Amino acid sequence: MTDARIETQVVRTRADLRAALAAAPRPLGLVPTMGWLHDGHRSLMRRARADSATTIATIFVNPRQFNEAADYQRYPRNEARDLAICTEEGIGLVFAPSAEEVYPPGFDTVVSVGAVARPLEGAARPGHFDGVATVVAILFELIGAERAYFGQKDAQQVMVIRQMARDLAIPTEVIACPTVREPDGLALSSRNVHLAPDERAAAPVLRRALLAARAGWEAGERSGDALRATMRDVLATESLAIPAYVSVADGRTLAELDRIENGGSALLSLAVRLGSTRLIDNEPIG
Ligand code: AMP
Question: Are the C-beta atoms of residues 146 and 173 closer than 8 Å to each other?
């Protein structure tokens, strides 16, 4: 049997990236990642592949989006395994640059998105979205993809990147893809590897809290406070789960809602600490 898998070309410099892209058939689909790839990343890659003549993934643990140095240091990394997954998924090109290649000496610009970047993760992790918007702006400019694929799991991130691309007139279309979960409901995340067995067993409480609030909304509850209380009550059933925030926010602005208007959209979201690991999840409604 012949091996039908494509070769994955790995480039590490801006110059090699430019050269590789010059010959690449269009349209080009981009999947930005920080590596330690899992089935969530694979789902973005499959969607990109279905839409594109060439797919490119980036693997870069972006130091600027970590607001805690310890979190950056311990972020899981395994490039050989990641490249094997890219090959399995038919990714033609991988850009895996060093920090100096992304931020050359003298680099001194920050892309800072406004209102949509301020609440939730923006409030909890100062500087995080500046780091995200800055690196994604650089990647969008360097790569010039027709489309880029992001996970709904990081719903606020998708909104921040859409705002950034629109405001900076970057023509790459931002496509949001559904959250991939474990059978027990836990959203896949590279950080799940840090969970101790008892923390892993407790982690589906995030999903349970979100689904309880969704059920409340489906039963007619429209009060933001009531739905936030529903989520807190479910989280309180797991003593290991320490909530950072629970939110019922406007689906377009992410402003906290007193009430979900009929016909309006909302984003239920939460961030929870389990031991030293911080997990987020969300559920769009309406
Ligand atoms: P990361 O490597 O964690 O920065 O994630 C890279 C991309 O994969 C981002 O667009 C994430 O939103 C997306 N992603 C991460 N986890 C999941 C998941 N469980 N389901 C779908 N997409 C995900």
Answer: yes
- The reported pLDDT for the residue numbered 6 is 76
Q: Which CATH number fits domain 190-285: 3.40.50.700, 3.90.1170.20, 2.60.120.380, 3.30.1300.10?
A: 3.30.1300.10
d(CA 216, CA 233): 13
Cα distance from N-terminal residue to C-terminal residue, the chain: 50
Strands 241-250 and 93-95: what pairing?
A: unpaired
pTM: 0.97
Q: What is the spatial distance between Cα 278 and Cα 125, in angstroms, rounded to a whole number?
A: 11
Considering the segment(s) 9-177 as one domain, its CATH architecture is: 3-Layer(aba) Sandwich (3.40)
Q: Is the peptide bond before 27 cis (omega within 30 degrees of 0)?
A: yes
Residue-level pLDDT at 3: 47
Closest Cα to atom 22 of ligand 1: 151
Pick from 182, 164, 188: nearest CA to 174: 164
**Pocket around ligand 1 at a 6 A CB cut-off:** 33-34, 40-41, 43-44, 150-151, 153-154, 177, 179-180, 187-190
